[in-house]
Specification:
The protein has 219 residues and is an alpha+beta fold. It has helices at residues 3-72, 76-133, 143-161; strands at 164-166, 179-185, 194-200, 203-205, 208-211, 213-218.
């Protein structure tokens, strides 16, 4: 064999072997380089997984606690609405009471004013009765006497329509709530505590005494 062939054979296998070893080393290093980041990622994923698990476990707990807080704590808007509703109800009740009280006061004031006017009118009515009683017998059928009597009857009718009524006295049992006894006589023709004479008429207004009857009581 020539020296050139021997040199080529020696260099070729050696070069192949050297090239093969270097290729294998490069492959191993590449595999290691590929495995290392995957290992870091695995370690990170493993490190992150407990946190995620912990987080996933805490989220339902926080959600449950939030629901309990919502149940225990009322919404401020709902509380404000309830407060306004309560305030409105109280004001409506106060207004209703005020209206009833005002109507009652008006009615009382009206009755007080009416009683005051009636008390002032009654002396005029008494004078009408005294005037009619003083008319002589020969003039009672005259036009003047009849005109005065008609005015008197109209006056009585107007008072009755307004709620004024005369208190019955003669022949009735004495009642201190209605009558004022100023005289007393003994007369067997009358019963005990029977009113024998009326000296001044009494009147009531809507069931309430405006003026007591001034009477004479027998026995």
């Amino acid at each position: 064999m020539s020296r050139d062939k021997i040199k080529e054979e020696q260099e070729t296998p050696g070069g192949r072997q050297g090239g093969g070893a270097d290729g294998e080393e490069e492959k191993i290093e590449q595999e290691r380089s590929q495995e290392e980041p995957s290992g870091e990622e695995d370690s990170q994923s493993q490190e992150d997984s407990p946190e995620k698990m912990d987080g996933s476990e805490q989220e339902p707990e926080e959600g449950h606690a939030g629901q309990e807080k919502k149940k225990g704590k009322q919404d401020p808007k709902d509380a404000q609405i309830e407060e306004l509703q309560d305030r409105l109800k109280r004001q409506m009740a106060e207004f209703d009471n005020f209206r009833k009280r005002t109507e009652k006061e008006k009615s009382a004031m009206y009755e007080v004013g009416a009683r005051d006017i009636i008390e002032k009118i009654l002396p005029v009515l008494d004078n009408f009765e005294r005037g009619l009683a003083a008319v002589p017998e020969d003039l009672k059928g005259g036009s003047f006497a009849e005109g005065v009597e008609m005015i008197y009857k109209q006056f009585i009718k107007t008072l009755e329509d307004a709620g004024v009524e005369a208190i019955e006295a003669v022949g009735q049992q004495f009642n201190p709530d209605l009558h004022n006894a100023v005289m007393h006589i003994d007369d067997e023709t009358y019963g005990e505590n029977e009113i024998s004479q009326e000296l001044q008429k009494g009147y009531k207004y809507r069931g309430s005494v405006v003026r007591h009857s001034m009477v004479q009581v027998a026995n």
